[in-house]
Amino acid sequence: MENVAIFDSPGKGRGLKATKEFWAGDVIFSEPSLAAVVFDSLAERICHSCFRRQEKLQRCGQCKFAHYCDRTCQRAGWAEHKQECSAIKAFGKAPNENIRLVARIMWRIDQEGSVVSDMQITTLDELEDHLTDLQEDEMKEFKVDIHNFLDYWPRGSKQHTVDEISHILGVINCNGFTVSDQRGLQAVGVGLFPNLCLVNHDCWPNCTVILNHGNQSAVNTMYHSQRRIELRSLGKIKEGEELTVAYVDYLNLSEERKKLLKTQYFFDCTCEHCTNHIKDDLKMGGKEVEGVKPPEEQVKEATDFCFEILEKIEQARLNADYHEVVKLCTQCIEKAEPVLADTHIYLLRVWSVFSEVQAYLQYFEEAADYARKMVEGYMKLYNTNNAALGMAAMRAGVNHWQAGLIEVGHSMICKAYAILMVTHGATHPITKDLEAMRIQTEMELRMFKQNEYVYHSMRDAALKNKPMSMMHEPKSMEEGIKNLFHRKK
Ligand SMILES: [Zn+2]
Ligand SMILES: [Zn+2]
Ligand SMILES: [Zn+2]
């Protein structure tokens, strides 16, 4: 860990600073998880060892709770499942994900000591648990977890005091990192990465965190080797500068971000963007036509209208009633688009859902059109190298390609690729997908310029094979993963 040092960050407590200069895309450190677990809700759909989503998983014959891709994954996961397996059997069922995670952490620390790798620069004892900041109802839930933990923890394992257990549960509560599937599209579990807990928040950060599952063939060689996070630099960072990441999505108003940070992470954000309400005006703004903005009343009315309809849209989407989603979005767009700025966050949200559902229903032109608007809005709001912007550009690129708009499609894919090279790195599965798309669209673009007829017939054939399809069912696809740390709702 020669790249970073722990220091006292003014007003923030402990933090990490760079001990040398970094450039966009540099990996400042990479860290394996101390422990991680699959969410309760996905226990039968995600492999408990490699955290990949698979159609068919094999169940652990002993506890009947853990699921694995195959023998290889089961063997690789055995070291961290062994004690859990007999505890679940004895307990009669699997306890919730928080309790399972605390137990996995404790078994590991009991076995290997408080520092489990030579890269780990902090012990769990030194991390904040914010127990005194918990609200009354949170405290109630917390006590239930402690109680259940004590029932679950085997007599034969090393015994711990309630204070020790509470501390680890508290640490997880504010620092449990959201683990995504291999393509980074869905939140599937929660894990603890001790060094990452030292990186403070900034709404306009200089770093990003990405989980890289590595390649599957290397999985079984090392304990936990497959789940590593990388702290990556988003731009130039000077020696001595504090390293920061965003705990919450920037596409919230500064007041909303501050509220989220206060209730979930227990601090008051004093970053430049919050203090000066930077870009709040764009996020709630009216559409300027020839230098004239609509009256405030009208903007507010359209904003409220969007807000209300977004709730209905979300409901229809959850019910998989996609034609209703299209109907509601169309209604909203008709009313709000002439009034609201193209950076208005509710309008962006509507465009995003609309294009996603249209692509699913195979209305590719509409999908492409609104995905492009969304990307253009994002570009005015987000940092140039923002992962959510990169993913949006990728989606827009695919939609354009699907619609036969190869020139814009190719340029969007290139844009996405450039961003993801910084935020995800060349070895991430999504970046590799993008590279393949970049090469394919480049070839098609060349063909298009030579002979449009040949291009179109080739594209029709390619569409039938759907090699670049991103048509998940919209309800299963999250809007990226916007909260860095996992909070139980
Ligand atoms: Zn697996
Ligand atoms: Zn088992
Ligand atoms: Zn802030």
UniProtKB/TrEMBL annotation:
GO molecular function: histone H3K4 trimethyltransferase activity; myosin binding; zinc ion binding
Cellular component GO terms held in the UniProt record: M band; nucleus
SET domain mapped to chain residues: 2-248
CDD domains referenced in this protein's UniProt entry, alphabetically: SET_SMYD1
Record bears the keyword Transferase: yes
InterPro entries per the UniProt record, alphabetical: H3K4_H4K5_MeTrfase (IPR050869), SET_dom (IPR001214), SET_dom_sf (IPR046341), SMYD1_SET (IPR044418), TPR-like_helical_dom_sf (IPR011990), Znf_MYND (IPR002893)
Organism superkingdom: Eukaryota
GO terms of biological process kind: cardiac muscle myosin thick filament assembly; heart contraction; methylation; regulation of cardiac muscle fiber development; sarcomere organization; sarcomerogenesis; skeletal muscle fiber development; skeletal muscle myosin thick filament assembly
Protein name, per record: [histone H3]-lysine(4) N-trimethyltransferase
Organism: Cynoglossus semilaevis
